[in-house]
Write a structure and sequence with these properties.
The complex is a heterodimer of chains A (249) and B (265).
Chain A (H helix, E strand, L loop, with lengths): L8 E12 L2 E12 L3 E5 L6 H8 L7 E6 L2 E2 L7 H7 E4 L11 H11 L5 H14 L15 H13 L5 E5 L7 H16 L3 E5 L3 H7 L2 E6 L2 E6 L1 H6 L4 H10 L1
Helix pairs in contact in A: 3-4, 3-5, 4-5, 5-6
Chain B lengths: L15 H23 L1 H43 L4 H15 L3 H11 L3 E4 L2 E4 L2 H26 L3 H9 L4 H31 L11 H12 L5 H32 L2
Antiparallel strand pairs in B: 1-2
The chains are: A alpha/beta (249), B mainly alpha (265).
């Protein structure tokens, strides 16, 4: 559970449509995420969850509809990408650490080059973040020397170094060994508890049920059903939600 | 890799590979011995010329360095623009690259030699441009076409996820190229860049046609003073050997790096 979501809406999405050629990935998605809320997106593969996340920080463009994040209209022709991406952190399934940089340099790269911070304070903060994700002492290691779970936690620290107000997690445990999934989920739990708004795409149903304030079930490029975890997992209203949960639980 | 199996080979008589090597070296020595016996007089003559000839070969080396510097600077810029998201800029860079790659080097050298004035005004001062400098720039310009392709290939070899991760952190295109993509691409770009350096250095002998004093010119001048047609082949073999001794180690190193870096990751 998060640090009590407020009523202020931080992400507002209306009637979002995106297609690749003739294949419609997002078919009229509308979604609100409130400040400090933990929202989980669940649903079958190919239902557009990852694409939705990528449109929110403008890694993918859209055909129609609007997205507002922290007061920035992302779907404008020329949005303020720098401000947007400073406020929205994103964690990927494949970690995407920079293999040529040490753990410490991975974390300080964006604060140094984008925020123009001084090296001293930036490194101090990077060490504090490494403590937070329980990787104290790994400053000098390179990504290739770390396990998948450790790399993913470095990726989380790297993203937090930009002090984002929203964190998006795109199936971040999907590529991990079962025994390292837990350490990453624990880290996400800590992030969520700190009051950062979280948008989490996941296949870990137990995790979603435990952590989420709101669960959105997506299918065929639409949000089919939204509700509290209690409602979605114990009394799903839509037949598609029921069918999906029966398959995965 | 630390977890490689260590294979302990039993001690035995040298294998076939060893005997082949002995055979190759003996054959080489035999040929050298025969050449020395047969061409003793020309070889001694060429040996006497060596200090002067090597001094002019130094000119070739300096020209090669200038040419690769020009090719690297111009080619890197072109290669980066080739990967630009601006469709039109990318097209212009690609066509310019194609043009350079298809220009005969001698023609390019000729154009630079005759179009660039012999002195230019730089920071309010007239700077004299020597012939050899202009020729080196002339070789560097068409070589930039190849450098452009090396850089494009290097940038393309870095997975798109690296761009996305850096984008998501707020880095702009220039910052991503400088901090994330190019440092990683350096590995795949270095071996072909070294090969390009070898080619560029070899091409500096083209300048002799345009009157620049380098190794080839130096040899020709000396031959002209001797009126001895029998010296023609040994003298050019000498040029060949001088270039080979300089280029071969670089070329080997480039091959080794390529192998080593392609095995990793």
């Amino acid at each position: 559970m998060s640090a009590s979501p407020t009523d202020q809406r931080q992400i507002v999405i209306r009637d979002l449509v995106k297609s690749y050629g003739s294949h419609t990935v997002l078919n009229g998605v509308s979604l609100d995420v409130r400040q400090s809320e933990i929202a989980c997106l669940i649903g079958p593969s190919g239902s557009g969850k990852s694409t939705l996340l990528r449109t929110i920080n403008a890694l993918a463009d859209v055909d129609s509809g609007t997205i507002d994040v922290c007061g920035i209209r992302v779907t404008d022709r020329d949005p303020d990408l720098l401000t947007l991406r400073r406020q929205v952190g994103m964690i990927f399934q494949s970690y995407n650490l920079f293999p040529h940089l040490s753990v410490l340099d991975n974390i300080t790269l964006a604060p140094l080059t984008v925020l123009k911070e001084e090296r001293g304070p930036a490194e101090e903060r990077a060490r504090a973040l490494l403590d937070k994700v329980k990787l104290t002492g790994k400053e000098a290691a390179f990504p290739g020397q770390l396990s998948g779970g450790q790399q993913q936690r470095v990726a989380i620290a790297r993203s937090l170094a930009m002090r984002p107000r929203v964190m998006m997690f795109d199936e971040v445990t999907a590529a991990l060994d079962p025994e390292t999934v837990k350490e990453v989920l624990t880290t996400i739990r800590d992030v969520a508890a700190s009051g950062v708004t979280c948008l989490i795409v996941t296949h870990e149903m137990r995790f979603a049920r435990e952590i989420a304030d709101v669960v959105h079930f997506t299918d065929g490029g639409r949000i089919v059903e939204s509700g509290t975890p209690e409602q979605i997992f114990t009394a799903p209203r839509d037949s598609r939600t029921r069918a999906f949960l029966e398959r995965v639980l | 890799m630390s977890n490689q199996l260590t294979v302990v080979k039993p001690r035995s008589w040298p294998g076939a590979a060893f005997w082949w090597r002995v055979l190759r070296w003996s054959a080489l020595l035999a040929v050298l011995g025969w050449v020395h016996a047969r061409y003793r007089e020309p070889i001694e003559l060429l040996a006497g010329w060596t200090p002067g000839l090597l001094a002019s070969f130094l000119r070739n080396i300096v020209m090669g360095l200038v040419a690769i510097a020009v090719a690297t600077a111009l080619g890197t810029a072109l290669g980066i623009v080739q990967c630009s998201p601006h469709r039109r800029r990318a097209t212009v860079a690609r066509q310019l690259t194609l043009l350079l790659r298809n220009a005969p080097w001698l023609v390019a050298v000729f154009y630079v030699m005759y179009l660039v004035p012999y002195e230019v005004k730089l920071f309010g001062q007239y700077v004299f441009l020597a012939d050899w400098l202009k020729a080196a720039i002339g070789i560097g310009v068409p070589a930039a076409g190849y450098m452009s392709e090396i850089v494009r290939g290097g940038i393309r070899s870095i997975p798109l996820q690296q761009w996305e991760a850096a984008n998501a952190l707020g880095l702009d295109r220039r910052q991503i190229l400088r901090r994330v993509v190019l440092p990683q691409a350096l590995r795949s770009m270095t071996p072909p860049w070294m090969s390009l350096y070898c080619i560029v250095t070899l091409s500096t002998s083209l300048a002799n046609i345009l009157g620049v004093e380098e190794l080839m010119t130096s040899i020709s001048l000396r031959l002209a003073g001797e009126t001895r047609p029998d010296l023609l082949l040994p003298a050019h073999a000498y040029t060949f050997i001088v270039f080979f001794v300089y280029i071969y180690p670089i070329s080997r190193l480039s091959r080794r790096l390529e192998k080593k870096w392609s095995l990793k990751e």
